[in-house]
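Follow-up to my post from last week.
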Amino acid sequence: MTLVTNNSCSVSPVNKDDMYKKYDLKKVINASGRMTILGVSTPRPEVADTVVDGLNAYFEMKDLVTKTGHYIAKLLDAENAVVVSCASAGIVQSVAALIIKDDRDLLFNLHSSDKPVPREIIVPKGHNVNFGAPIGTMIALGGGVVVEAGFANECKSEQIEALINPNTAAILYVKSHHCVQKSMLSVPQAVTVAHKHGIPLIVDAAAEEDLQAYYNMGADLVIYSGAKAIEGPTSGLVVGKDQLIEWVKQQSNGIGRPMKVGKESILGLTRAIELYMTDRHNESGADMVAKMTPFIQQLNRLNGVSAQVVWDGAGRDIARAEISFVEQVIGKTAVEIIALMKQGDTAVYFREYKANEGKVEVDVRAVSREQLSVIYQKISAIIAETILVNSILIDAEEVK
Ligand SMILES: *Cc1c(COP(=O)(O)O)cnc(C)c1O
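User reply:
Got it. Predicted complex:
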């Protein structure tokens, strides 16, 4: 008799093609950067292995949270750190931590309590952005009340200082390309004004690449998204002063519970940070320029298209190809071209922020040279099609 055992031949890992086939999903070329709507990033194999190891073991979770936090803090030369479920959860729990502090009653009744504790969170108006969800909603979830400082296009230290009062719980600074950049106070200036009044400064640095800069500038809590620059699993990181991180950690017994982070993410992010700090094999901006130069040259030979290298608006070492489409020549707007690029078997996603100016940006970090040539072919087909249609129309005009 043959014995059939299951455990020796566990289900073979689904390969990528099966995944797309099984659920009828479209393939994606991600030329938009670390975008949540596309799955952010693809962690390297060492990180994926750590996630699997984590899934297959039990831990005293409190111990895991504390010790990985200390391990990360040591790597970053900071007092303390904690892995959370995502950067948004980091904002929510940081706000809650600074309102609740040691108050057990508030920990359990953050939203229902009318205890008169400071709840105001001062945010430069130009930082009150929508990153995919509104900053203000995260502050409200954390029990805070948004107080905007300055104007849409300007915020100085004095404008923050004028709003500080006994109800101020914290200042939140959002370091991001989403924010207004001009006439904004710097992080060190925000630190100075916060500490002059004994108020903590939170920095949302979700997509930033430097895991030490803002902490070293004196920020009390700094928040990162685990899957963006760090290329970890879906997760987030809060780095900061020891007492404040302890207050963030205790949120898991309050509003933090629906933002629970799994053991696999805690271990996966810790490993990703370790690799990020010790063995970074990230492409430099110069590497990106080298990769995209032939692509840019090809594009510049197309009618109605021009392309050039542009550098990241938030000052990170990221180069992108900016493509301008001349509507009068092509007969299509950038918005229409963006929509066409997403059609077919493989969707191509650009950075779309400047579509209203007739421009898109190509972020090549997750794009291979082969994929760049797919992108080029797709663009040239769209343009050839309209130019062909136009010339037929012109011919028809001439016949008349
Ligand atoms: C991406 C982002 C977030 C949210 O990060 P998640 O990890 O997806 O929650 C918050 N703030 C800014 C500025 C971001 O860019």
